[in-house]
Amino acid sequence: VTTPEVTSRLSSYRCLAKTSPCLERFFTEKHEWVNVNGPWGTVGISNHAQEALGDVVYVQPPEVGQELNQGSECGAVESVKAASEIYSPVSGVVEEINNTLEDKPALINTSCYDDGWIFKLRLSKPEELKSLMNEKAYEAFLKTAAH
Question: Contact 78/50 with Cβ under 8 angstroms?
């Protein structure tokens, strides 16, 4: 008999045995991403979004403690040629912001999926992840005219 606790432990062991990270990245149609690790999500903008914006010069993250709903506007990214709102890919409470972006906003251009993350939140509705695209689906989405 496999209990949820055992299943969770087995999944963790499987992840440790892999060479790639266990985090799965999900995307929105507005080009935000979220990496999920248990109840925590790390949020940023996609490579496609940063390429479209150009050189990022300013990032306005949400406030720590702010409650966000999926799809709600929660910040902005400004570049030398454009500005774009940030929308939360999932609902939750902001637990941390990437303070490094205050002095080094260009990290979004050079490392949008790693050092250029914007904020971390505690997910309040993990079931919302089902409405997001995995990386393969997002890549297919980018090839359509819908974006």
Answer: no
**Is residue 74 within 8 Å of residue 88, measured between CB atoms?**
yes
Token look-up 């929105």 returns 28
Pairing of strands 56-60, 119-123: unpaired
Structural domain of 64: 22-142
Query: Residue 11: inside a domain, yes or no?
Result: no
CATH number for position 71: 2.40.50.100
Q: What is the dihedral of CA 75, 77, 88, 30, to 10 degrees?
A: 140
Which residues are paired to 73 by β-bridges? 87
Residue 41 in tokens: 């999500």
Tell me the per-residue pLDDT of 55-110, one tens digit each, with 9 for 90 and over. 999 999 999 999 999 999 999 999 999 999 999 999 999 999 999 999 999 999 99
How many structural domains does the chain have? 1
Does a structural domain hold residue 7?
Answer: no
